[in-house]
Amino acid sequence: MDQQTGTPAEVPIDSTKSSGVMQTLLHGPAGRSLGLVVALVVLILIGFITSGDRFTSSENMLVILRHASIIGVLSIGVTFVITAGGIDLSVGSVLGLTSVVGSLTAVQAAASESTWLIMVLVALLVGAIAGFVNGVVIAYGNVVAFIATLATLVAARGLAEIISQRRTLLVTNTDFTKFMRADFLGVPVLVWIFALAAAAGWFLLNRTTFGRRTVAIGGNLEASRLAGIKVKRHIVSLYVLVGVTAGIAGLMMMGRTTSGTSTHGYLYELDAIAAVVVGGTLLVGGRGTIMGTVFGVLIFSTLTNVFTQNNMDTSVQALAKGAIIVLAVLLQQRFASGKVRKAKKLPLKA
Amino acid sequence: MDQQTGTPAEVPIDSTKSSGVMQTLLHGPAGRSLGLVVALVVLILIGFITSGDRFTSSENMLVILRHASIIGVLSIGVTFVITAGGIDLSVGSVLGLTSVVGSLTAVQAAASESTWLIMVLVALLVGAIAGFVNGVVIAYGNVVAFIATLATLVAARGLAEIISQRRTLLVTNTDFTKFMRADFLGVPVLVWIFALAAAAGWFLLNRTTFGRRTVAIGGNLEASRLAGIKVKRHIVSLYVLVGVTAGIAGLMMMGRTTSGTSTHGYLYELDAIAAVVVGGTLLVGGRGTIMGTVFGVLIFSTLTNVFTQNNMDTSVQALAKGAIIVLAVLLQQRFASGKVRKAKKLPLKA
Amino acid sequence: AGALITGCSSGSSDSSAQPSNASSEGNAAAGEEVVIGFSGPAADHGWLGAINSAAIAQGDSLEDVDLRVAEGTNDANLQISQVEQFINDKVDAIVLLPTDGAALTAVATKAMEAGIPVINVDREFSSPAAARTTILGDNYGMGRSAGEYICERLGDKPDAIVAEIPGVDSLPLTQERSKGFEEALKTCGLDVDNRVPADFTVAGGEAAAAQLLSAAPKIDAIWNHDDDQGHGVLAAIDSAGRDEFFMVGGAGSKNAMELIKGGDSVLEATVLYPSTQAADGVRLARLIAQNKAMSDLVEVEAPKRIVLNAPVVTSENVDQYLPTAFTS
Amino acid sequence: MQDENPRPLLEVRGLTKRFGAVQALKGVDLSVLPGEVHCVMGQNGAGKSTLIKTLSGVHMPDDGEIFWEGKKVELSTPTAALSLGIATMYQELDVVDGLSIAENIFLGHEQASGGVLHVKKANSIARALLQRLGHGKLSPSREVGSLSAANKQIVSMARALSRDTKLIIMDEPSAILDAGEVQNLFRVVRELTSQGIAVVYISHRLEEIREIGDRISVIKDGQSTANNLDVAETPKAELIRRMTGRDVANVFPERTALSLDAPVVLEVSDLELTGHFDKLSFNVRAGEILGFAGLVGSQRSEIVETIYGARKATAGQVSVNGKRLVPGSVSSAVDAGIGLSPEERKSQGLILDEPIYKNVTLSTFERCARTGLLDETAERRVANEQIAALELRPADPLRPARTLSGGNQQKILLARWLVHGTTVLLLDEPTRGVDVGARAEIYTLIRRLADAGTAIIIISSEIEEVLGLSDNVLVIDDGQVLAQKSALEIDEHGVLDLVMKGSAA
Ligand SMILES: Nc1ncnc2c1ncn2[C@@H]1O[C@H](COP(=O)(O)OP(=O)(O)OP(=O)(O)O)[C@@H](O)[C@H]1O
Ligand SMILES: Nc1ncnc2c1ncn2[C@@H]1O[C@H](COP(=O)(O)OP(=O)(O)OP(=O)(O)O)[C@@H](O)[C@H]1O
Ligand SMILES: [Mg+2]
Ligand SMILES: [Mg+2]
Predict the structure, then answer these.
(1) Which residue spans traverse the membrane (chains A, B) (predicted)?
(2) So what's the ipTM on this one?
(3) Segment A216-231 mean pLDDT
């Protein structure tokens, strides 16, 4: 489900000396997420053992999901740039910027009925512009993505502060906040948005030319260029895409907190990148998995919840979290594949 | 001066139709730092024009240098891991941890005369251990450096908080703090340490087998391995090295602030990486320049100083800083080389 | 704008924060021009933003003050060099809200030794010699006030569930607040059952509260340390549709006060933590630099230590505090 | 030739191209007729790849004109060339490892409507293409990263065929193919030309040119030295002279009789690598050249990599001069005196951005150093010695390895182990992509090393080369030794027969 290599059923892996169905499953695309499923199940078990029904209640599951949703949407976007071999450190800060500009639009446009739509459009536009700037600097200015987006991280935060005059702006449009905080079929709208973003992201990555080219650029930029792909243009559109997801996440944040401020999304970039990489997307590019990212986000979100349910000290949480990140990656790798050569090559890079 | 390709004087660059000395200079190793020198000079000019003697006074220059010294030492270490194609996000947090453990040692060991030495050794040891853990997880666990050190970032901060019980610990050894805050030949000890670290780093990177291995591994890990270099062991030692520089930086911080706390070094990793990359070290590895790093650190430090001299609003500063990071990189690249293919290949990666 | 230090310096619980004080006439008159350096932590949340803006506004309003504002930072190293820069520039006084009191002590001492009076705001230095005057909010007192208020309301229910949402847990001020809170609760036999730290931001407050509400199915009272993150906390409470408890806030934002006044939210009260401390610091710095005294005191010099009060704002007295509340 | 009627499909006049200080093309002419196989020949570094890159929109020429079907064109991007109908198989593998075969084939021109992929359709077209190329057994959905280099080449070719082309440029397609695969390739080429599609074919193997080519153009040092020679009428010796400017006897150096009491240097016993080969035992004596003959994918590379410790053997042992090696430890192998020149020169052998001399001393810089301090003077001295001995061009030790031609890059790897002075040398495809002149030099060198007592294992896709160079030959298929023979006892057909029988069994 999580890979671009076609459906598992069609992949006979290798005619020579493959050792059975189990191997095939474990080393195939399904296996890549298996480690994560195991990690998540273990976490849930720990939650259940330590907190019982309070943890497994459907309300609590929704708390976990709602908490995951904003970082989740962000991570879907980040999955694309990382798959293409790039990185975006500015997503959190762009999220903050869109929330500020969005909230301000709502205030400016007063209480008119169309406000909501305008606000949404403006937020997405701001995200897209920030992404466009990133993309152009990276693709045409040849500035490494890490630095270009680090610069945007700093600049967008500053801009958001200037625009908001460092105040927390209230989102005055109650239609919007009500919608964002409502449930639909018993599931919060925020979670629906996350689910839709994941589904759309999966489709885009695995079933469209855009996705193929993203993987190709991440896997071999030069070969992609030789194959006639307009690499620079594609890179720009990738950063626009992740900018737009930051805009969506900004809107979700506005709905969830009924406010817009420059502090929204602070350090979210690290959470998003961690989720994406723990999920199995290669930081060097060339392989991306939306399913993995979703699992990665859920693991972190569940972890926080388990910690809270157990009233655990923040510092101990931090210590545990560090260990768990490494364990999750090790688990994921163990299940993912036996490609020794690959594994040997990768560790140091990026 | 800044490169591993031998001293500029010895490099005839190319026998066939080289177009003049200037070209040679610009495209050679010296040129790689030239863009940075230009950037720094421009900044200093701006400082002089806007603030006059107040800016150019020797006291102010020392303020800039002292401020640069701690991030500077850290960046020297980070230059090594980045040159080898790795990254270390945990340096800031390890700095905090060493400062806590160091301060605590001083308290424990009471006022005995040997305290100072023990404290220094303990701080360096803590840094080395943290680096060792990073290195082992990366080299032997095959966990990508970004994630492994992100985990350490989180965990070390948690550990520092637990150890310090979230208090700011005072460094009771006044001999130590006096030494660290003293001047020697009119130059602060902190600046001397930075200068020594830079000199040692330059020597290590350019004149020793350790440095050669580092560059080789960053340039092509697999080829280095197949040439018989003990790659894993070297990777571990690289992370130990950067851990030790974090320990030195932690000691400097203890001296400068006469305190140890878990918040010391917060987000320094980003500053250090930015300085290293702006300096011209390739984020994908294979090329590292200590001189460039020193310039990168000085540029950032001077920038902050100029801002403060001009009483600039923090948010505007952030905006300007973002733009300047990108400009500095563009400038550095422009002067660095005409290697078009290289530039085309690199932007997206890492 | 903003309150005069004389107005809120007494430390008594009934002190008022009246916007202006007639007796300041003598000091209000412009004196010789003084240069004041101000350095504070990064304005990364509402209260600190308000601190900064109030200080800058204060500087602007005093025509004999040239206020130099250094970049807000959470990095002790950078803040030290800012102070060094002020020392080099031979400013007349420095107002310093240190990112970490202990870490800035040495450089503040250096400034004092160089003859530049340092006004220490909010986070205290580790040595008394490092500041000419210290203006502090009462963090411990804040926790106590919140605890006492909750005791008053729940004192008869020994098994009441009390929750706490502190700000950044690693800050000493948070620990002070929590300590005061815990000790006050103890006096009436209560304790903190659930504690989920946030980070002073709206989003952090929302996330922490959402987790808290899920972890604790029934709650009687919540103390949230900061009204800025409180905005998020309330959003989460609203989302969860919970209202079986009451909440006490902290810092005293305008929003929070308006909610208290409105009376239809779970927020019943908030404990004041003046956001005008740095502004007061600027005023005081000016007096010290100009060698003036505080008008309402007989003493001919400015006092050494001023601890601002941490009163509880409820629907009864909210009107009194609303005018000086900060907009987060 | 202009008076002969068919209008050239592609005509190039006076093309020049400079990279920094290197003038790669100094004036090249080329004229390709529809339906012909036009061979371009030249030594390593002559500028062949640069020429074809200017024709496929990768590099913009500095000067010169390109005519396509009589019209002057500018090929500024790969897309521009592709849309005219010029498809290229590049010398460096240009596939994306993380994508499937079908995805690679349709990269840049995906089977899709409205941006949504037709996976099934792409797979079935890909399957048909693979079948046409004689590789119907490859599943189009298999990830390209798991393919051998030879199969990647097939994917490249399928990609070129998948486009609507009038000209296919093949830059050394046969370099990584074995004899059978080359025949397969030729079959496809003939099929293409019979449809009127022109092929520009680059290869260093003269026999191939004779077999498939119609006309030949020769480049030397970035300049055309001969154009449109008729293949049938031009003797081999003349071609070589046009390319190299001298006479090269392309014969294998004479064998020195292997003395029977030469000591066994390399001893491999019951070596096993799960999934690749098991229970492998053989010895190599001092001065012996042992050849591994077999088809591509027969696990020969895996065997030498395991001996070298680059892969960790699951069982068995390797000893050098009676001393056992630590399994999975390259450094213990190197210390014991083994050297490996790996199959994939660029990704496994060289640090492309580092200068030649540092690549040469990559295994020895520690030894040159004193107490951890580099001695670059000594390094450059030993590197220069080898540069001179191997006639490495350009003879500039400071030139980054990236800018060297393939043959010269190969010489760097040999130089590395020459400096090191190994007792066992493992050579995996040492002449891949190397020109005739250099090839002869490398053969001589290998023989000289053997005569000096080095034990050598050599892998080559060219059976002729294995047989011509080795003393003894192991015929390997699917990780199993089918036969161990003296190289004199077996010929090319014998090897192929064995392999065919082996895989049939
Ligand atoms: N990107 C580049 N930058 C600098 N020099 C280059 C570059 N590409 C090629 N060269 C140089 O141009 C010359 C021609 O190289 P080219 O690759 O065209 O040779 P070739 O004839 O294809 O050789 P081979 O048979 O080894 O493939 C060589 O000297 C090479 O070093
Ligand atoms: N069972 C397998 N599963 C996946 N990949 C395989 C398998 N067998 C071989 N390959 C791939 O095919 C490649 C070529 O195989 P191998 O190197 O053994 O062939 P070879 O005989 O050495 O070929 P060459 O003559 O090109 O050196 C391997 O590097 C590997 O990537
Ligand atoms: Mg070539
Ligand atoms: Mg092979």
Answers:
(1) 33-51, 63-83, 89-109, 116-137, 143-163, 184-205, 235-254, 266-284
(2) 0.87
(3) 94
Q: Is the CB of A16 under 6 A from ligand 2?
A: yes
Q: Which residues of chain D does B209 touch, with a Cβ-Cβ cutoff of 8 Å?
A: 365-366, 369, 372-374
**Cα angle: B1, vertex B6, B9; to 5 degrees:** 70
End-of-domain residue from the set D244, D274, D302: D244
Q: pLDDT: is D248 or D293 the higher one?
A: D293
**How many helices and strands (H and E) does chain D possess?**
17, 22
Q: Is residue D317 part of a domain?
A: yes
pLDDT band at D22 (very low <50, low <70, confident <90, very high): confident
Residues D343, D466 share a domain: yes
- For ligand 2, is residue D478 a contact (CB within 6 Å)? no
| Atom 24 of ligand 1, residue of closest alpha carbon | D44
Is residue C44 within 8 Å of C288, Cβ to Cβ?
A: no
Does the residue D252 lie in any domain? no
Q: For residue A223, report the distance from its CA to the centre of ligand 2, in Å.
A: 22
> Residues in chain C, how many?
328
CB atoms near residue D114 (< 10 Å): 6
Please enumerate in sequence order all residues whose Cβ is within 8 A of that of B293, keeping only pairs 6 or more positions apart, or say none: B72, B75, B76, B78, B79, B198, B201, B275, B276, B279, B281
From the CA of D203, the nearest ligand is 1
Burial class (CB in 10 A: 0-12, 13-18, 19+), D84: buried
Q: A241-263: per-residue pLDDT in tens?
A: 999 999 999 999 999 988 898 88
Tell which residue, B14, B11, B32, B17, has the closest CA to residue B334. Answer: B32
**CATH code, domain with D308:** 3.40.50.300
Tell whether A312 is within 8 A of chain C (Cβ). no
Tokens of B232: 């894993």
Secondary element (H or E) of residue B223: helix B221-226
Atom from ligand 1 closest to the CA of residue D42: 21
Task: Tell me which amino acid residue D232 is.
Answer: A
Nearest to C74 among B67, B166, B266 (CB): B266
Q: Are residues D349 and D437 in the same domain?
A: yes
**Same domain? D231 vs D133:** yes
Q: How far A215 CA lies from chain C's nearest CA (Å)?
A: 33
Evaluate whether residue D235 is within a structural domain: yes
Stretch D235-261: mean pLDDT = 80
Which ligand is the nearest neighbour of the Cα of D439?
1
Distance between CA atoms of residues B261 and B250, nearest Å: 10
Between C286 and C15, where is the model more confident?
Answer: C286
pLDDT tier, B110 (very low <50, low <70, confident <90, very high otherwise) = low
> Is the domain of D459 the same as that of D368?
yes
Return all residues near B298 (Cβ < 8 A) that are at least 6 apart.
B40, B64, B65, B68
Asked whether residue D250 is assigned to any structural domain, the reply reads no
Q: How far separated are the first and last CA of chain D, in Å rounded?
A: 53
Name the residue range of residue D487's domain: 264-501
Q: pTM for this structure?
A: 0.88
* pLDDT one-digit tens code per residue, C240-278: 889 999 999 998 888 899 999 998 899 999 999 988 899
Range in B173-182, B285-294, C92-101 with the lowest mean pLDDT: B173-182
Instruction: Write out the DSSP string of C37-75.
Output: EEE-----SHHHHHHHHHHHHHHHH-TTEEEEEPPP-S-
Give the integer Cα–Cα distance in Å for A213 and A232: 12
Amino acid at C287: L
Number of domains in chain D: 2
pLDDT-derived band of residue A310, with 50, 70 and 90 as boundaries? confident
Q: What is the mean pLDDT of residues C18-33?
A: 59
| Amino acid occupying residue A229 | I
Tell me how far CA of residue D354 lies from CA of A134, B212, D401, in angstroms: 31, 11, 6
Instruction: State whether D315 and D395 are in the same domain.
Output: yes
Give me the mean pLDDT over the B58-84 stretch.
Answer: 95
Chain B contact present for C60, CB below 8 A: no
